[in-house]
Fold each of these.
Amino acid sequence: MRLETSTPCSQHHRILALTTLSSVTALWLSAQRMPLPMQLRIATDVLLLAAWGQVGLGIATLVNCVPVHLGSAHQAGALTLFSVLLFTLHSCRVPHAGRLLARIASATRRAPAPAAH
């Protein structure tokens, strides 16, 4: 089976779309049950919106026989979805973790070496 032919390529695209959509939806559903910072809550909401919008745009593109304007919008939607995903991942970081790690490393270096017996 060649990847360049239209049918397998479309099938892979649909599988990737459904996997992405179900993963993002499951993430959003689990995030609704957790006490999260406001930035992360907004990020997961926007991620869900972007994923569903991208799938809707993909379906509209196929139904209309792939006009250029919808195909271009679908490509822009993919970039938007990726950007929102990066923002969501950035929002998951622990604030000041880098400073804490630097403080621990500094304290470890300053600690006196154990005396040899």
Note: The first helix runs from residue 6 to 31.
Amino acid sequence: MKIPLLVIGGGLSGLAAAVRVARFIPDVLILEKHSRIGGLNSYFYRNKTLYETGLHAITNYASAGEKTAPLNRLLRQLKLKRNDFSFCQQYQSEVTFLNCESLLFSNDFRLLETQIHRKFPQCIDNFQKLLILLDSLDLFSPTPFRSAKKILTETLGDKLLTDMLLCPLMYYGSSHENDMDLNQFAIMFQAIYLQGMFRPLGSIKTFLDQIINHYQGFGGSIRKNAEVIRILHNNRTVFGVELATGEIIECEQLLSTIGYDETRRLISDEPVSLQPRLGFTEAIYEVKTVESSKLPEDKTIIFYNNSEKFSYKRPDDFVDHSSGVICFPANFHGIKKRNVSEIRATHLANYTKWKTISSNRDKYKALKAASSHKTLACVENIVGNFSSNIVYQNSFTPVTIERYTAKIDGAIYGRPEKIKDGYIGFTNLFLAGTDQGFLGIVGSMLSGVSIVNQHVLPKL
């Protein structure tokens, strides 16, 4: 018997696509290579404590009454009840360019407008022009790459403000070096600045479990540790997949959420010409809460740059510590304070250098430790000292991300060129997820939903 829909990849995009189809046809199967669902947004345990991977915050916050907002449209498409989730909004976040300027923003867009009016008064009229321009764009139509940086610089007339507005959006969604596609910028501008950030009460595991249980309630199935090694096809029609065990699973429709080039490698043995990709390191510090602590209690995320020129590109060295992201996962409304708190720091990294040295485990571990120590110094320079109160720390490199997600080069945002319509040349194989172009958790899930709505459900 052929499976009506096979989904390769158990990340949030694949999970959402599977839920959407399982509402109407229950015989949907997700094949996940790893032992845990979630993909880039998953979790692990150390010392019986759960730590999240990937999740800093979810973008695209909307109140329950905003019916057309992406978050609420997503919940309706998946037949999920808003009241079944507890969402915690950010306090406020900050973009700080050291020795230059800082901007606060929150889920109330008026805060950012007020900050720009006060700190960049010469730009406030041009900022309103930018808002009108962004609102006029047809965000999801296939268009050639247009430089967001160029258009922002021309519209705002201020390079510092341009870089400061770009910084959070790049770190949370750009696969291009030192730039973004204009449409992608507009999507992320709406997601982060106009709508804002939040996280589920509890952990990413709680969130995943709710969706998995919902999916299985419709009759959908998941197989973990089920690595697909080949997509079986005849000309332009797929008829199944082969697993690493040699098992063949036949299907009528196939959705891949693992990335464009990752999918092409399963279709053909021919070498794939790879586009340059961006990698990241992340350090986690669990800190004992003490009364003398000076850590920010009113900021959720800090995006920083401490060099004369903001650079968002693959560094020449292992890690570029000159800019990055500092996240306080407990600094959201509604999250109770604990006796320990977590600090996460993200930097751009050079995958090739990390991959080369990873063959020597001792050198690799020593370099990870040195990089984490340098990250600690950078973070303390911005938020205050906390090293004496660290009770646990860990760090990931692009090699770690590649190992646990199978993303080429450990690139969490995939290849720069996106396949917006999900069509990759087959009659019944389509692409969703990072390389389709919707980023962030809500965006990734909407990617899965929109592609099956467009290509899969009409044929089943």
Note: The chain has three domains: 3-84+202-272+415-459, 111-195, 276-405.
Amino acid sequence: MTGLFDRLRAGQPLLTETTSPPKEKVEQPLKNLELLLGWLLNRWPKDLVTLRDIQAFGPGSVRDKKVALNLMQILAARRWVAPCQPHRYDMTRWKIARGSTFQPQPQPTTQLQP
């Protein structure tokens, strides 16, 4: 006679160390990160953004508090935003790094000799 756990275990594949998460679970945070960054740079008119602003006006898939905080921490680590001092103790606020940080050097012009 087989037990309940044996019957339940029979229908599940064995987990191994080589098992990787599905692509959808890995790609979704990257899509949300790109979506939030695009919203911050192109649609948000102010230089400062709070967590409450993201929850109220941000893209729909990043309006969850935990998701928004995780994505903003990633953006802060990559220097797209910088945390700044809020005027309330229970507020989280970031300054958006606008403008190009990469300044291309002008290329010297060469004239062709006939």
Note: The longest strand covers residues 81-84.
